[in-house]
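As a warm-up, study this chain.
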Amino acid sequence: MKSFLGGAGNVVRNLKALGCRVALVSVVGEDPEGKEISQMLSSLSGVDASLVVEPSRRTTVKTRFMAGGQQVLRVDTESTYPIGRDTGEEVKKAIQGFLDCCDVVVLSDYAKGLLGAEILNFAISQAKDEGKAIFVDPKGSDYTRYRGASVLTPNLAELGQATGCLVDGDEGVVAAARKLIDLCGLDALLATRGREGMTLVSAAGEVMHLRAEAREVFDVSGAGDTVIAVLGAAQGIGVPLSGAAALANIAAGIVVGKVGTAVVRPQELLRAIHQQQASRAESKVMDLPSAVEMVAVWRRKGYRIGFTNGVFDLLHPGHLSLLSRAAGTCDRLIVGLNGDLSVRRIKGQAPVQNEGARSAIVASLEHVHLVVIFQEETPISLLEALRPDVLIKGGNYRLEEVVGADVVKAYGGEVVLAELADIYKTNSRIAKITNGTL
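Now compare it with the structure written out below.
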């Protein structure tokens, strides 16, 4: 049998794994389990814990029985009645003592008797007076107890229970979230929706749906702790709420793929983000029919479409300068990339990198929105099909040398020659690499 910190302790574990310094205020019983929790917290560097002991109380213990990596049974022993007045006064003193050194306040409500109306009112009012953001993982059906908090993070069932609303689908979730935001004076609400991901709704009316990142779910125990820990940690270092929510969504996808109340580490988050970015880059590379459909969508939104083309072998500052300046002329930039057969026809030799590698690299650039590979010697067929509003080439060309300029101008498009900071020639660089003079 293995013992782990649970409840608010699991929030502490997640924050500690992210590299945060943490102050914890909680209540335990005068029993062996309470002492064990104290010892576990003492072993964590960077954690300041104030555990108020209430002799009549039984420390909460959740015993999970696992089989084949899955939880099959849970047995709880605990006391859930409200804490006493003297205990409450000690809790208030501990909260007040920690506020000065905290960037954010997390209230992890497990409905075990600590966060009653008096303690909630005290913690929220004191934190607001100190200008601290307040994140609450809520419980129960009366969310007016959390009035004045910054962000609530209910799951789907809790959101429905607290509002009496049907929370099926995006529209139902958003309507329920807005009801609670108005009722409780929140800045925002982040609804965790299991396999459907998360939905962030702000008091200003902004809505962001974050689809689930989990590849395989083994255990959802403590996922809510991870979400609020990552959300609070990211906000504490100045990450905008939308970005913090996106990180929390990625973290949730990682932690449910582990067994038990697990934590997420920075390296895991970074790896997941890199994988996500690579996936997004791959999604930007399309065949011509798919690109035509995407352009139709962009046009309906009123976007100005730009197009440039090239081999883009051994990407260098000249390429980056062209793509950056091209992006500045439009809302959505399409890059036509010469395929391997096209390069062989034009240059008489294969490119250093194949079309798959070249397209992936170009698509990974933030200001490139779509990449289309073509095997002809010129991009004329792409220009005729996509009909971009502006065709961009480097300033080292003359207008009469730009292939496709007549096609674009014929339907009223514009041709732009972009001044480049530096002009590099891939062929000359390859030659220098070959003879060792680079």
